[in-house]
Amino acid sequence: MASSFRAFLVNDLFGDPALYVALPWERRALLFDLGDITALSAGRLLKITDVFVSHAHLDHFVGFDQLLRVLLGRPKGLRLYGPPGFLDRVEGKLRGYTWNLVEGYSLTLEVHEVHSDRVVKARFACSEGFFRLDDPAPHPFDGVILDEPQFRVRAVHLDHRIPCLAFALEEPVHLNVDRAALEALGVPVGPWLIDLKRTVRSGAPDEHPIRIVSTQDGRRVERVLPLGVLRREVVRVSPGQKLAYVTDAVNSPENAEKIVKLAWGADLFYCEAGYPERDRDRATSRFHLTAGQAGRLAAEAQARRLVVFHFSPKYRDCPGDLLDEAMAAFGRRLVG
């Protein structure tokens, strides 16, 4: 089964946290945490529509300025999600600059601050000098911070001596295309399949027309088929995929319960593993997880695959120790 989420860590095991997730069927991308993102090309940055920030420590938020610089002047909107206090952090960043020559720029930031019981939202429009415009009515928080037909993002609050968000990216159902069935219908593969999947996910009726455009012998050929035929003959439905992202959390019973529940059954679990077991006390005092704790959490959550990251620079000479400890606790080989 092809992966719906093409995810990779932007930096190495010791670098700033930033997880880039391409959504190929949507021609867009998501970003989990906003540390140093200089390794990402402008093309990749321009695909980002949503950024999920665990907390506003420097190594998780320093990339905000670079992302803003690339998007500035583009006809684009960007949504950001963060923990309590996040609106003030974003506003503070924006107020650090002068915006007197941006009247014709259309970039707009929609910022969501996630509390335990509500989500508070504000809008910052470049054309208005990024003046903060608060949404007067907070929205109830039920665990889901973004819900679209193609996927949803869940969040929980963890204890890092400040509230720190962890996230799960979930696909309700996974859609594959049977190429042999396509050939039997006499229709080619092409970009129209992205629109087909999007329409299937939206729950459109069987009579909804699907336009199939291709090129044959240099000529543009167009054909229309009802969605019901394609849904029945071509689309194969299977359980959706799940990705979990956890960083910067102390190993407490409350955190562990939340992490296991959030990451339960994840196909891919990204989890911080900052310290080896021999320095467990230091990890606790810094409100971080050890590699062994990360592996045990992944095993308890019955994750299929585990990726550990966010190693403390103190262990740059012995990354294998942390990888081995995580793998031993998880009970299988790690990814990456």
What does this 3D model show about the protein?
The protein is 27% helix and 32% strand. It has 336 residues and is of the alpha/beta class. The strands form 4 sheets. Strands 1, 2, 3, 4, 5, 6, 7, 8 and 9 form a 9-stranded mixed β-sheet that branches. It has a 6-stranded mixed β-sheet with strand order 10-11-12-17-18-19. The chain has a two-stranded antiparallel sheet with strand order 13-16. The protein starts with 5 loop residues before the first strand and ends in a 6-residue tail after the last helix. 36% of the residues are buried.
Features:
336 residues; alpha/beta; Metallo-beta-lactamase, Chain A; 2 domains; nine-stranded mixed sheet; six-stranded mixed sheet; 19 strands
List the helices and strands and how they pair.
Layout: E1 6-9, E2 19-23, E3 28-32, H1 42-46, E4 48-52, H2 58-61, H3 64-71, E5 77-82, H4 86-95, E6 108-114, E7 118-125, E8 131-134, E9 139-140, E10 144-147, E11 152-159, E12 163-170, E13 173-177, H5 179-185, H6 192-202, E14 209-216, E15 219-226, H7 227-233, E16 235-239, E17 242-246, H8 253-263, E18 268-272, H9 280-285, H10 291-300, E19 306-309, H11 319-330
